[in-house]
From TrEMBL:
Family the entry assigns: Belongs to the leucine-binding protein family.
Provenance organism: Ferirhizobium litorale
InterPro entries linked: ABC_transptr_sub-bd_PQQ, BCAA_transport, Leu-bd, Peripla_BP_I
Domain Leucine-binding protein: 37-188
Xref: CDD domains: PBP1_ABC_transporter_LIVBP-like (cd06268)
Descriptive protein name: ABC transporter substrate-binding protein
GO BP terms in the entry: amino acid transport
Alphabetical UniProt keywords: Amino-acid transport, Signal, Transport
Gene3D superfamilies in alphabetical order: 3.40.50.2300
């Protein structure tokens, strides 16, 4: 009788800053398990293969407050054996543990923060990004608008920092691809625009007046990540024009209606396990866990140095139901990926669009390209 082979455990962690979020529509309130559900689905996928290779994958989930010091939580997870850590944190929280993680041979997978600064001025060698940047999302949207010959854009942005950052990404995309922003307006958050304070009749009167003085434009761009006013703009503008950005036609890493490229397979598996459709953060987390799973399986090791070496290899790629194998940009460890463009019901298109060419990868037409990068790997 042969001795039973020892099972190798690959322990992953998921550290998230969580607080219930408001949304202008109750349909847009994020699920309580957003992201975590995607990670757990990938854990199950990894274990399906791992069962044949004597590998077992587990996921430890820890939640903190949005402004809380995450170092104690990080230290606790590392003490429990986590060497691959998914994070859904603010920029400040992520940076507070990035160098600590490097010194303790912990790999970080950013599945939540779209901030370009984490891939540029504050990039790190041990931080991999499976969520796209704001610039990638804006470029994906801009390419489609240019392809449609809708080149004149008006921009309305919110008064919070995330809104301003997405507005900056849209301005950059306009310059990059030949769009013209003919007018801009800020919608200040006075605390009276949310659905709990305003009725439909008031909004129906307010939004046409707010957009009445804009010059002629093809598309109204909206930058309202803070969910203050953007959802109220479609069908309420002074002149009948499409709305795009954080409302209307929205760029995202994934779309719950996607069924192309085997998407039905992952959607059905996810829905069966979680009772809902897959969202962008779920896909970012699923992809991160599958990357670790693929690396651990191919190297037959749970060691973070071997997993990191596998991911950084020239021939690394991961399949993620997006029509092509995805790879990392070696200059800042951002995962190249198509951008989905859709409304609340369907996928309208995916970028990069036809005709936007690149000497290395057409996916590098989305976001900051290598000649533009400010990243100096630390």
């Amino acid at each position: 009788m042969q001795p039973e082979q020892q099972v190798s455990e690959v322990r992953l962690g998921y550290l998230r800053a969580y607080a219930p979020q408001l949304a202008l529509s109750v349909l847009d309130v994020p699920p309580r398990d957003e992201g975590i559900a995607g990670a757990n689905t990938a854990i199950n996928d990894n274990n399906t293969t791992g069962a044949f290779l004597n590998q077992k994958f587990t996921l430890d989930v820890v939640e903190v407050e949005p402004n809380e010091d995450v170092v104690p939580a990080f230290n606790g997870m590392v003490s429990n054996g986590v060497r691959s850590l998914l994070v859904d944190l603010s920029v400040a929280q992520l940076l507070s543990i990035a160098d600590l993680a490097r010194d303790r041979d912990v790999l970080i997978f950013n599945v939540g923060a779209t901030d370009d600064i984490l891939r540029e001025e504050e990039c790190r060698a041990n931080v991999f990004h499976t969520v796209p940047t704001r610039s990638m999302l804006a470029d994906g949207l801009a390419q489609y608008l240019i392809w449609k010959q809708w080149r004149r854009w008006a921009l309305i942005y919110g008064s919070h920092e995330p809104d301003r950052l997405f507005a900056d990404a849209l301005r950059r995309a306009a310059t990059r691809f030949g769009g013209e922003i003919v007018a801009e307006k800020e919608f200040a958050d006075t605390g009276t625009a949310r659905r709990t304070d305003s009725g439909v009749v008031q909004i129906q009167r307010q939004m046409p007046v707010f957009t009445q003085d804009l010059p002629e434009y093809d598309v109204l761009l909206v930058a309202d990540e803070s969910e203050v006013f953007g959802t109220y703009l479609p069908f309420r503008t002074w002149i009948p024009r499409p709305v795009a950005g954080t409302a209307g036609l929205t760029p995202s890493a994934w779309h719950p209606a996607s069924e192309q490229w085997g998407g039905t397979q992952i959607q059905n598996r996810f829905a069966k396990a979680n009772g809902r459709r897959m969202l962008s953060k779920d896909m970012a987390a699923w992809t991160a866990v599958r990357i670790v799973g693929e690396a651990a399986t191919r190297t037959q090791s749970a060691a973070s140095d071997k997993i990191a070496a596998f991911i950084r290899a020239d021939d690394f790629s991961i399949a993620a139901f997006k029509g092509q194998k995805l790879t990392f940009r070696k200059w800042n460890w951002q995962l190249r990926q198509p951008i989905f463009l859709g409304d609340g019901r369907s996928v309208v298109s995916t970028s990069p669009q036809e005709g936007f060419l690149h000497q290395v990868s057409e996916l590098d037409t989305l976001g900051v390209d290598q000649p533009e990068t400010k990243c100096v790997i630390k």
